[in-house]
Amino acid sequence: MAGGNFYDRADDPALLYVVRNEELDALKVGVVTQGSCAARLGAHKRRGWTAELTLGFTSGHQALQAEWAVVRFLRECGATDLLPQNKMPQGGYTETVARAALVDLDRDLLIVIARAAGRIVRKAACPIYRFFRDVGEATDLLNEMIAAGQKDEARELIAELMDALLLFEARLDEAWGEGWGKV
Fold first, then answer.
1. Dihedral (C-alpha) 118, 121, 126, 130: value to the nearest 10 degrees?
2. Nearest CA among 40, 29, 32 for reference residue 6
3. pLDDT tens digit sequence for 26-85
């Protein structure tokens, strides 16, 4: 990223982007703060890259999660060839796929993978998702406690969990109006 370290601004809104270089038979995913997007994509464009996709995130942390998921997925699937660093003087060679055609990776497929990763990261960051994940973990813990004979401790936690669920319902009533979940 031009002008500083991305990690210093990872709390700021950010973008995940996909660029392609036909001459090099290469694809790349990357992240950039929204304020630096034009400069970063311009640096790629001057070197023959075409911007194919940008996805917005409320924070750089989310954009990085999506980027890492895409890169990890590609590497696990066998797309391990990187462009040499000297072919990417603007930086970012570690997030490239060289000889993309050899692994049958094209721009459309990379866009699908990037969008899927972005959608999952955004949903996983949603407070409701986190809440239900936490409730599921609490339920698992309670079942383990009951199986281990710790019924009194489990009852105390169930009471706390019920209080949390009632508070959650009250906050949903405030946000969406009473009766939001009634049939």
1. 160
2. 32
3. 999 999 999 999 999 999 999 999 999 999 999 999 999 999 999 999 999 999 999 999
Task: Locate 153 and state its tokens.
Answer: 């401790």
Q: Check if the beta carbon of residue 67 is closer than 8 Å to that of residue 32.
A: no
- For residue 56, the cross-strand partners are 15
Q: Tell me the per-residue pLDDT of 120-157, one tens digit each, with 9 for 90 and over.
A: 998 887 777 777 788 888 888 988 999 999 999 988 88
Rounded to whole angstroms, the Cα distance separating 84 from 154 reads 57
- How far CA 131 is from CA of 48, 52, 128, 159, in Å, comes to 45, 35, 5, 17
Burial class (CB in 10 A: 0-12, 13-18, 19+), 168: middle
Instruction: Please write the tens of the pLDDT for every residue from 85-116.
Output: 999 999 999 999 999 999 999 999 999 999 99
* Phi then psi dihedrals of residue 55, to 5 deg: -125, 130
Pair 61, 11: CB distance under 8 Å: yes
**Rounded CA gap, 58 and 54, in Å?**
13
Q: Which residues contact 159 (CB under 8 A, 6 or more apart)?
A: none
